[in-house]
Amino acid sequence: RLGMTWSIDICIQQQEHKMASRKAARGKASSKQNQRSSSNVFSMFEQSQIQEFKEAFGCIDQNRDGIISKQDLKETFVQLGKLNTKDEELEEMLKEGKGPMNFTVFLSLFGEKLNGSDPEETILNAFKLFDPQGTGHVNKDEFKTLLMSQADKFSAEEVQQMFAVTPIDVAGNIDYKSLCYIITHGDEKEEA
To answer: Where is the EF-hand domain (predicted)?
Structure first.
């Protein structure tokens, strides 16, 4: 679930900081081995996706030293309105990178998470269980109840974070086909 938290928080932050400064300090490459492994990581994404990850990394790297630290994460969560993030939670997020969280490690982490998700068809089929009429929508309130009461229960805050990037119509219905696309491909909303 921490991976999901990373993804949701990054999506939220990207939307809030789209118009922020695009200036980002980049650290020097640490070794030839990192350069070789990074070439595989960079080939996993389109150039536009890499640019979005760079922007997100730059927004999270509060002190602009090229490494995301626990303090950088804490300050980012504060900017997002999450004031009571526990140090243990932040440390767990950083442990996912298995080393200093530079941009290459950050990109690798998301590459693993995105490649580790179920295929879009599998996710769609799971949603269809909650949509017996085949409308392409599920009720937001019913879905929230399920998320908070079944299996790996979400907290109210986690549900709120997820809904921030979820396409919901005025009647309170989730367009789960669009949500599945966001889960498997990322949020590709065009800037106006």
So the answer is: 48-83, 118-153
What are the mean pLDDT values of the chain's consecutive 10-residue runs (192 residues total)?
A: 47 41 33 42 79 90 94 90 89 88 88 68 86 91 89 86 88 90 66 38
Distance between CA 182 and CA 12 in Å, rounded? Answer: 13
* 54 neighbors 103 (Cβ within 8 angstroms): yes
Q: At what angle do helices 103-115 and 32-43 cross, to 10 degrees?
A: 40
| DSSP SS3 for 139 | strand
- Using CA atoms, how far residue 165 sits from 15, 69, 84, 103, in Å, is 9, 25, 22, 24
**Structural domain span for residue 126:** 120-185
d(CA 97, CA 110): 10
Number of domains present in the structure of the chain? 2
108 and 139 inside one domain: no
Q: Is residue 36 part of a domain?
A: no
> CATH code at 171?
1.10.238.10
> Does the pTM exceed 0.85?
no
Q: Name 166's Cβ contacts closer than 8 Å, sequence gap at least 6.
A: 174, 179, 182
Token duo for residue 30: 């640490």
